[in-house]
Design goal:
By secondary structure, the chain is an alpha/beta fold. Helix content is 42%, strand content 7%.
């Protein structure tokens, strides 16, 4: 499938201005140029164009919000000047598996002031003597080259960190505590009901005693009334 048709499918009846991420990996570029992308993709932040046969970026449109660009496994050997002009806010650029041979080709990336991570895996340039030192010197804004900084510390995997955090939020002891709380509430509730039953039994016994007493009292009252009636008759 050619790149232009693939992009149309990826839009899914949305306007280009609504698209934040776009992946067109393994589609085909007929003439080695970017096809189907326009200046209308104003909100695009992530673009993946892996293995599409690109040999030039000359037709890349202006993407002012683009921060991450995947261009691995293409045929790029130069023409990186347009990146600084069209994508000035790039922080991550993957050029691995391309035909970049010379250090001078990377000079165009000096104008990408926000560039933090650059990947050049499987490019011929990596076989140059002092390759890493030279790239870090040429591009001082870059923190990670091929996944490692100048001290050979690996770049953090932000996506994995996000998943871990989400997992902790979802799974967590909160649910266990909730169950324990429910159990405690059930136990408390059961004890409370038992106490209620005991109180009811005590109340019933007291009520029976009270009912007995008035009965005797009423009997005494009747007797008294009878005696009073006898007295009245005598009078």
């Amino acid at each position: 499938m050619d790149m232009k048709k693939r992009i149309t499918l990826e839009l899914r009846n949305r306007s280009p201005a609504e698209i934040v991420e776009l992946v067109v990996d393994n589609s085909r570029s007929a003439d080695g140029e970017v096809e189907g992308l326009t200046d209308e993709f104003t909100q695009l932040e992530f673009l993946s164009v892996v293995n599409v046969g690109l040999s030039s970026l000359a037709k890349l449109p202006s993407l002012p919000k683009l921060r991450k660009l995947e261009l691995s496994d293409n045929n790029l050997s130069g023409s990186l000047d347009s990146l600084a002009q069209k994508c000035p806010n790039l922080t991550y650029l993957n050029l691995s598996g391309n035909k970049i041979k010379e250090l001078s080709t990377l000079e165009a990336l000096q104008n990408l002031k926000s560039l933090q991570s650059l990947d050049l895996f499987n490019c011929e340039i990596t076989s140059l003597e002092d390759y890493r030192e030279s790239v870090f010197e040429l591009l001082p804004q870059v923190t990670y080259l091929d996944g490692f900084d100048q001290e050979d510390n690996e770049a953090p995997d932000s996506e994995a960190d996000d998943e871990d955090e989400d997992g902790e939020d979802r799974a967590g002891p909160t649910g266990d505590n909730g169950e324990e709380d429910d159990e405690e509430e059930d136990e408390d509730g059961s004890e409370g009901r038992e106490d209620d039953y005991e109180d009811e039994d005590d109340y019933a016994e007291e009520e029976e005693e009270q009912q007995g007493a008035p009965g005797q009292k009423r009997k005494r009252d009747v007797d008294d009334e009878g005696e009073e009636d006898d007295d009245d008759e005598d009078n």
